[in-house]
Design brief:
The chain has about 400 residues and is of the alpha+beta class. The chain has helices at about 10-25, 70-80, 90-95, 110-115, 135-145, 160-175, 175-185, 220-225, 230-235, 245, 250-255, 265-275, 290-295, 375-385; strands at about 5, 30-35, 40-45, 65, 265, 280, 285, 300-305, 310-315, 340, 350, 355-365. Strand 10 and strand 11 (about 350) form a beta hairpin.
Length: about 400
């Protein structure tokens, strides 16, 4: 497999792990980027962006990163918090009065970010096209009763996370989440990263392929298919990006679905985390202060996840390392300060403020499991071997 890009000799182990993903782990097309202390030390890509045409994955290829988008959405909230424009401990209804319906008046912004709010989904059946209608989605969430007493448990807000945080951003900044992200993060940092992709970039997109079939459904997949379960409400109402037809549709790419339809490559995703690995600033752009950064990396929810049905750990909007022997895991290196987010199929972005490193991996062949699979985990492990 020919790989393209650059790799500092010190990080040769990352190049070797990336090449091994193609040779032995079913990689189709992918990119990986490592930014150490503000310097890009790995920026590699390889494989094909589209299996049927044979179109190569180039340094400018983009791909949808599914729930890795949540890191970008959470960052927008933290940028506002760092500026004093929102307070994470203030009730959501202060910014979004309609949200107080159905006994939700005391739910704090922080409980949306750390998946404790109980508003992980909607009871009433939503039509598939509701996914593209911001007003329909936010109105349904405002009317919804919490699905458990807020603060007493946590469960992954698979689709609702983006609409909930996005509406707070919209009410506070008068800009949509996608526009705020471009104006305040991606644009200033010169990142090729979009939540709501302009039509002119569509030809650069890689074609997403779903994970290989398995002989028996996982507990998560079984729960997703069980109408009325918490997992079904979180992932399937309305039906999300669960097939290649949906994931590769222009309507999906053009919409703002801030929990799951960010489009970028590893350079763009690592570039978003690079300031968070360096005290909050990079390339002359300051996003958050050090106090905010500490809040972004502090565990707030931990234990059995009522939606994902495995033990999970969350800070305010970001995942923390989850080492579940014999079950789905995501290990963001050895340092407790590290945080990030994974996406369906195994993409991820992360920052480690202690090691001052940001890492990202984006691909088009989705892998098995809920969190990281062996391809992404091998890249993280190789980064820390290189760092010593």
């Amino acid at each position: 497999m020919d790989l393209f890009g650059t790799c500092d000799l010190r990080f040769a182990a990352v190049r070797d792990a990336f090449a091994h993903n193609f040779a032995a782990r079913g990689e189709l097309g992918a990119s990986v980027c490592v930014i150490a202390d503000g310097r890009i030390v790995v920026d590699l890509c390889g494989g094909v962006a589209d299996r049927h045409s044979g179109r190569a994955w180039t340094p400018d290829t983009l791909a949808m990163i599914f729930s890795s988008t949540k890191g970008a959405t959470a960052l927008c909230a933290h940028v506002l918090a760092a500026r004093g424009e929102i307070d994470l401990d203030t009730p959501v209804a202060h910014y979004w009065p309609e949200f107080a319906a159905a006994d939700k008046g005391t739910i704090a912004v922080r409980q949306l970010l750390n998946h404790q709010s109980g508003v992980c989904g909607v009871d009433r059946k939503l039509r598939p096209e509701a996914l593209f209608d911001w007003t329909t989605m936010t109105a349904a969430l405002a009317e919804q009763e919490p699905l458990w007493p807020p603060g007493t448990a946590h469960g992954y807000h698979a689709l609702s996370f983006g609409f909930l945080i996005g509406e707070i951003v919209r009410r506070s900044s008068t800009r949509s989440l996608g526009r705020f992200f471009r104006d305040e993060v991606a644009g200033p940092l010169a990142l090729d990263f979009w939540i709501g992709l302009p039509a002119q970039h569509e030809p650069r997109l890689a074609t997403i392929r779903m994970p290989p079939p398995t002989s028996s459904p996982s507990p998560l997949l079984a729960a997703m298919m069980r109408r009325g379960s918490l997992t079904w409400k979180a992932f399937m109402n309305p039906r999300g990006l669960i097939s290649s037809t949906h994931a590769n549709a222009r309507a999906v790419h053009a919409a703002e679905i801030p929990a799951s339809n960010g489009i970028t490559n590893a350079r763009g995703l690592a570039g978003m985390y690079a300031p968070l690995a360096r005290g909050g600033a990079w390339r002359g752009v300051s996003l958050v202060d050090r106090d905010t950064l500490r809040r972004m990396s502090t565990v707030e929810s931990e234990g059995d996840d009522r939606v994902l049905l495995i033990p999970t750990r969350f800070a305010s909007g970001f995942m923390k390392s989850m080492d579940n022997p014999g079950r789905d895991s995501a290990r963001f290196g050895p340092n407790q300060a590290a945080f990030g987010h994974v996406g369906a199929g195994g993409s991820f972005g992360m920052a480690d403020p202690q090691a001052r490193v940001a890492v990202a991996y984006v691909m088009n062949q989705l892998g098995p499991g809920i969190l990281l699979n062996e391809r992404g985990q091998a890249l993280i492990d190789a980064v820390y071997r290189a760092l010593g």
